[in-house]
Amino acid sequence: MSNLSELSDDRANACRVYDFLIGGTHNQQIDQPLIDRLLEIAPNTPDVAKENRSFMQRAVRHLYREAGITQFLDLGSGIPAGGNVHELAPDAAVVYVDVEEVAVERARELISGLPRVAAVHSDIRDTGKVLSHPDTRRLIDFSKPVALLATGVFPFIPDSDDPAGIIAAYRDACAPGSHLALSHALTAEHWPVAAEKVLETYRVLAQPMFPRTLEQVASFFAGYRMLEPGLVPTPAWRPEEPVSEEQIAYRRAMAGVGVLTG
């Protein structure tokens, strides 16, 4: 994750690379060395990215259809791809937030003419700005349950920026019955192959990643009651299709959904 002032066109960008990994086309030539290196050292990286995207979609469908949530704040939403939040929850109010210009521009093109959907160009670490933004205030009624989505963004926020405090600031703005859907990369000992090489590649060619222990990721759900099946490997959260033992055993990232207690 970068500050708005830190974004640069002379390095690969994790947002654009993620878009490529899930099948998008918004990557640039400067991103290609990172993409090539990732595919060389960890060929299953696209699968990991797609599993993350699929978790977000399953979580949104659950929150919208079963939990009755009609307000979504998508933190670090990324470049729109197929199956976006406003498409999965068509009657809901949705605010996308991202620091990357291409993500916000593309989102605004996609949602043009949709009065209940907005895209905010902001660093999610600036919680006050995000929560007080005119589009956020126009669309989100924080006296009613809200779904916070944070799928894959916090691994780009260092401990020095207090990621748990960032999540807590958004949590504290929400009413009981709100939900948090979060996915996060685990530390290297949980990856079967190439962990240090992947992390070094991001550090050198794009921006640092900050994977965390299972206990650290679980701590982000402070104040929330975890829904079944708890904090699990990303593809294992309420799968809609059969999941292999290999997918579950590959604990590169974990995911969960919690409900805010009163």
Short description:
The protein is an alpha/beta fold. Helices cover 38% and strands 16% of the residues.
Structure explained in plain terms:
The chain has 11 helices and 8 strands. The longest helix has 22 residues, at 45-66. It has one domain: Vaccinia Virus protein VP39 (Rossmann fold). By secondary structure, it is an alpha/beta fold. The chain is globular, with a radius of gyration of 17 Å. It has helices at 14-21, 32-41, 45-66, 85-88, 101-111, 127-132, 134-139, 163-172, 195-205, 214-219, 245-249; strands at 71-75, 93-98, 117-121, 147-151, 179-185, 224-226, 232-233, 253-260.
How many beta-strand runs? Answer: 8
Question: Span between N and C termini?
Answer: 31 Å
Element pattern in H and E: HHHEHEHEHHEHEHHEEHE
The low-confidence runs, each spanning 5 or more residues with pLDDT under 50, are 1-8
Label the CATH architecture. 3-Layer(aba) Sandwich
Helix content: 25-40%
CATH class: Alpha Beta
> What number of domains?
1
- Output mean pLDDT: 92
CATH superfamily: Vaccinia Virus protein VP39
The description of the largest β-sheet is: 8 strands, mixed
At CATH level 3, the topology is: Rossmann fold
Radius of gyration: 17 Å
Give me the number of helical elements. 11
Which structural class matches the secondary elements?
alpha/beta
The shape, in one word, is globular
Strand content: 15-25%
